[in-house]
Fold:
Amino acid sequence: MVVLNPDFARAMQERLGAEWPAFVEAMAQPAPVSIRINPFKYRSTPEHDGQVPWCAQGYYLAKRPAFILDPLWHAGAYYVQEASSMAIAEAVRQWVGTDRPLRVLDLAAAPGGKSTLMVALLSADSLLVANEPIRSRYDILRQNLVRWGLPNVLSANHDPQDFAPLAGWFDVVLVDAPCSGEGLWRKDAQAMLEWSLQQVNFCAARQRRILAYAIDLLAPGGTLLYSTCTYNDTENSTNARWLRDAFDLEPLPLRWPAKWGIVEQDLGYQFYPHRVRGEGFYLSCFRKKIASSHVTARVHSVLRSKNRPASFGRFQRVASAGLPALSRWVQRPEKVHLWQDRHEILYAVPQSVAADAETVLAALPRAAPMLEIGQVLKGDLLPAHSLALSVLRAGQVPYLNLDIVQATRYLRKEDPQVAGAPKGWFLACYEDYALGWAKGLGGRVNNYLPKGWRVMNTGHS
Ligand code: SAM
Structure:
């Protein structure tokens, strides 16, 4: 039997009425385990215990494996994500439509669950900007997006107010807001101890600040997705009503089959653990009216000009001519757009999103393309880890499949101890899933997994 905070229990009992005992019972059960596969990498269907109804790529697992031991997780073949929060996929399906190029902003993105979900839904000529203001969390976001391997993504490490030069520019803005986290207490008991009514009010006010910036960034007709992993009305319904009343936003209803168990609540939708196989989650969806007094479409004039500069923030545009033969490393290099930073590290996005990416890089000093190609050294390329995990990596690079023991050694940044490794650069793989770069030196293998990616304890010797 869980002991719930009395203020929380009182409010929930009042709200749930006859359903309260079922809620309390669900809170005593372990949280379901679910993953979302990467449709650009995962080659089969995972062994599963049911599909997540509202997300085609979401699967429940019968038990929680040690994900840290699984090379496929390290390869970005799937993401471990709580099932309710995958409902963003259904909202996008119902109201956004992803068969056209879109500019999408995830304003509060770390650790990257919704960003990885979102970019997998978008067309290849759409651009996702995944932003996280807190530095340590930003690094985790980048790691997860690098693992995911899709190239039409920029990351940013900014407060929402820094996005002002991009006002009126985005087709979709997702605010998966920092919240009081009531819906995650089964996974994080400490969060319940930190909960208080003051904290709820603090979170609600912070959410309104983030949302006000988000609305300014939306283009006319653009879609705002607002979500939290909490139950209380202060952060959810009250903020949703404030959005409707204070701004030119039209609420967008979502339609779910009744058997999914999702509860309509005022202007949004609530996921409860006794009704769905997932954690507590709230989602509401709005469209910015075309004739909105809050529409400002005022992308900074420098960013709009035809004579754009060749440098964007800390990145300088470069031509592929004169660079080490990129076709050895990158699929169809003529289709990528390149920049380098002052350390001559090359970054790329697909040509189809290059102009939009430069607009973002020029506006935000701490934005960066997700796909780092590598560093040019003495006329040769030192390939970056993100290239190893990217879906744009050339198909013909030499590779070697490691067994589970060798793959584990590789992920611990040890010599994987393989006989017959190719000489020179090769991809270390497990079951054909790329884990990272290695270099064969005759008798031994140098492991190029970045230091910060090293797995500390994997159980296998
Ligand atoms: N969307 C993420 C996912 O699905 O993996 C989870 C986001 S989490 C609920 C909220 C995030 O907002 C946290 O990473 C937090 O650091 C970040 N955050 C905190 N203050 C913020 C602010 N003022 N503006 C934007 N994001 C903020």
In short: The chain is about 25% helix and 25% strand. The first strand starts at residue 33 and ends at 37.
